[in-house]
Amino acid sequence: MGLNPVIDMLGRRLRLAVIGGGSGSFIGAMHRQAARLDDRYQIVTGIFSSDPAKSKKDAMELGMDANRIYPSVKEMLDGEAARKDGADVIAIMTPNDSHFDYAMWALERGFDVICDKPMTNTLEEAETLHKKVMGTGLVFCLTHNYTGYPMVRQAKAMVADGQLGTIRLVQVEYVQGGKADESKPDPSESWRFDPVRGGPSLVMGDIGSHAHNLVRFVTGLEIAEVAAEIGNIVPNRAVHDYGGALLRFDNGARGSYWVTQAAAGVENCLRIRVSGTKGSLEWMQEFPQALTFKPLGAPSQNRTPNGPGTLPLSARCTRLVAGHPEGFPDGFANIYSDAAEAIAARRSGKTPDPLAMYFPNSFDGLMTLKFVFSAIASSKNNGQWTKCQE
């Protein structure tokens, strides 16, 4: 492959249409930047708001073709499906309750899909959507962007390479303070505090899903059983802002899981420790350049992007030479770029680089929903051990 494998396979960039993420949206801007960073997509149209007037205004400000601005999601999907130069891929970055419908509509019209997490709000929807993806053969990418960090991929590759031996212990935490404020939420965030729109557990869907996905990605293990307590730390809050759990894995390993958005003053502390029979790995999102490897009976080692000991899965997603920092936008872009290569390969009938196939997919989204609902069930039963695979 050359500098741009998508152009090598298709002779052009992928045409991307977006749903959501208009003015004022942090995650919308992140999706658009991620799509463009490696020059594998051209954003051709979008519905940027449920308000048609606001959506049109945002589309014009973002440089969309005035003849390619649509009043609704369905009209955009139908319009693009009918064009010879129509969109190839639909990216969804809307409130959680709309992910299922928009993804299903896109798949039904033959579009590949990139969707923000969590995949759906209900387990039934997740099962239906995963089945639809499998039935169509289309690419479905779920933007658990932390799996795009070079040192997270280095950790996964080291585990798979046997450098830690048999995994025995896993600890993960995702701690934020953004919802420690006990006043009413910002109106722009109000949908997150509505269980119908935001899902059955605010903290589990918002950041708990990332923690669960990170554990599965790095270790390659499934959580077999969970004993959880999920609830609210802020008094009189109607949604969950805290979740803690003990974990049992399918290989017999044990683990702990802690997520909260109510730790006053904490910013965005996602942290994982994986311990095996030969050593341990530690990584923290707020200092993403460093992966600490502690081999049994030997001095601690520090791995860095493109530094000594870098394995191919990590090297693939590192744009800079060693010693130059990369971060959140780059990890997000790695997910988009890998999905682009998979989509271009599917559309051209060619074979993608196997290292491009590690982006989160619909099965990952389904497994997260199974975990979330098992954890909620466990909490309702006073922390009773609950199976996650049923």
Protein model, in words:
The protein is 36% helix and 22% strand. By secondary structure, it is α/β, with parallel strands linked by helices. It has 2 domains: 5-145 and 336-356, NAD(P)-binding Rossmann-like Domain (Rossmann fold); 147-324 and 366-387, Dihydrodipicolinate Reductase, domain 2 (2-Layer Sandwich). A hairpin with a 4-residue loop joins strand 8 and strand 9. Helix 2 (26-37) crosses helix 11 and helix 5 (99-108) runs parallel beside helix 6. It starts with a helix and ends with a strand.
Topology (elements, then pairings):
Elements: H1 5-10, E1 14-20, H2 26-37, E2 41-47, H3 52-61, H4 73-82, E3 89-93, H5 99-108, E4 112-115, H6 123-136, E5 140-142, H7 150-160, E6 167-176, H8 195-198, H9 202-219, E7 223-231, E8 242-249, E9 254-260, E10 268-276, E11 279-284, E12 291-295, E13 301-303, H10 312-315, H11 328-348, H12 362-380, E14 386-387
Parallel strand pairs: 1-2, 1-3, 3-4, 4-5, 6-9
Antiparallel strand pairs: 6-10, 7-8, 7-14, 8-9, 10-11, 11-12, 12-13
Helix pairs in contact: 2-11, 5-6, 6-12, 7-9, 9-12
